[in-house]
Amino acid sequence: MRKPFVAGNWKMNKTIAEGVTLARALAEGLSKDAKADVAVIPPFLAVPAVAQALKGTPVKVGAQDVFWEAQGAFTGEISAAMLQDAGATFVLCGHSERRHVIGEPDEIVRRKLDAALKAGLDAILCVGEKLDEREAGLTEKRLDIQVRSGLTGLAPSHLSRVTVAYEPVWAIGTGKTATTAQAQEAHLFIRKLVRGMFGAAAADDLRIQYGGSVTAQNAKELMGQPDVDGALVGGASLKPESFLGIIAGA
Ligand code: PGA
User: Fold this and answer.
1) What is the pLDDT of residues 79-137, one digit of tens each?
2) 235 lines ligand 1 (CB under 6 A)
3) Is residue 239 packed enough to be buried (19+ CB in 10 Å), middle (13-18) or exposed (0-12)?
4) I want to staple 4 with a disulfide (CB 3.0 to 4.6 A). Which of 48, 199, 216, 230 is the partner?
5) Active site residue 167
6) Ordered domains of the chain (ranges, CATH)
7) CA–CA gap between residue 184 and residue 2 (Å, rounded)
């Protein structure tokens, strides 16, 4: 059985002090019998303090992005080793806002994923279609391109450290959640794709999170779908009550 994985992506929100307060509230409010793996993903600057605040708790800390080189003349960038040094154990690769606001193509996403895994970080590979692609019937084509580009040729030992997040771009931060049927359909498509690439065992073990306007109200139904193994949460992860409500739905 796949254990659900609920991660809160704070995006460009929270000062260091605010992040520590939120992390503490979360750890204190987390039920001992929570069924999910739980993580927070603060902005880079808050990672060390949040990791310190969460030491000894089951809540993991991730980072929102990573650069693919280990060190050198790359002004403004942060390496996987630096993230580990700061206390992160995983990183988001190819989040929708990196792809569509910053303009990261699939090749860059793959370089980041490889660098993270090679350095020993786990990774969440984010994929998802835009509204015009869904309306044109191109959802599966887009997912096929992004998943293949992200995962083709990965060693099994690396694949087992990857979570895929299906996040339809039109559902992120918009309050428009995919229906449970739309989410399940996309997740099943991704799992079948991975089965074709890596075999049944790897596909059965792969955790696929849903992301896009997940709330404490809709989380349980979404995560109740057979191929939805958790949630990648943006807005609703910024308050302990709503994020704990989502975790309770897992
Ligand atoms: P949202 O963001 O929950 O605010 O829609 C999700 C995400 O970007 O991961």
Assistant:
1) 999 999 999 999 999 999 999 999 999 999 999 999 999 999 999 999 999 999 999 99
2) yes
3) middle
4) 230
5) yes
6) 5-249 (3.20.20.70)
7) 15
